[in-house]
Amino acid sequence: MRSRVIFGGLVLVVLALVVLVVRKERVLAHGTPVLLELAPVDPRSLMQGDYMVLDYAVSRRVGQSATPRQGLLVLRLDADGVGHFVRQHTPDTPLAPGELLLGYKERDGRIRLGAESFFFQEGHADRYAGAKYGELRVAKDGSSVLVGLRNAERQPLGRN
């Protein structure tokens, strides 16, 4: 009996992980590419290896005005694919052409977009030092996945 409970719990955990991976893979495959201007901070973590904490200009622009503590932002993409904050989404205001949704959560007084750090191989920090944009894939529901970093000319970094 005890082994069945343990096995059943293990199966549930594995199924939950598979569902999460499938959702992220769907966003990667079908999401809209969006570049968000960023300011990299804290390029190292001794416990976790090399990484950058990402602070997006969109997050700074929204600032403390975000209510509720979790919701959707409306972005408009410019000709270069860079997303710019338009407003907070409300269900009674439809999206205009060229607008898309991006999910957020407010934590510790900061607007978090879900992709707040970028990990890279130890010793490769110089490849990412010129990062000016985070490259995300954004689904229609506002969920997003960080897929890379780009320089000021919007060229991918770290793909040597």
Task: Give a quick precis of the structure.
The chain is α+β, with helices and mostly antiparallel strands and 160 residues long.
Number of helical stretches of at least 4 residues: 3
Q: Main beta sheet, described? A: 6 strands, antiparallel
Rg, please?
18 Å
Tell me, rounded to a whole number, the average pLDDT.
82
Structural class: alpha+beta
Please give the share of residues in helix: 10-25%
- What does the overall shape look like? globular
List the helices and strands and how they pair.
Blueprint: H1 2-30, E1 32-41, E2 44-45, E3 49-56, H2 57-62, E4 70-77, E5 83-88, E6 99-107, E7 110-112, E8 117-119, H3 125-128, E9 133-138, E10 144-150
Antiparallel strand pairs: 1-3, 1-9, 2-3, 3-8, 4-5, 4-6, 6-7, 9-10
Descriptive overview:
The model has no long low-confidence stretch (mean pLDDT 82). Strands 1, 2, 3, 8, 9 and 10 form a six-stranded antiparallel sheet that branches. The chain has helices spanning 2-30, 57-62, 125-128; strands at 32-41, 44-45, 49-56, 70-77, 83-88, 99-107, 110-112, 117-119, 133-138, 144-150. 24% of the residues lie in helices and 39% in strands. The radius of gyration is 18 Å and the shape is globular. It is an alpha+beta fold. A hairpin with a 5-residue loop joins strand 4 (70-77) and strand 5 (83-88). It starts with a helix and ends in a 10-residue tail after the last strand. It contains three helices and ten strands.
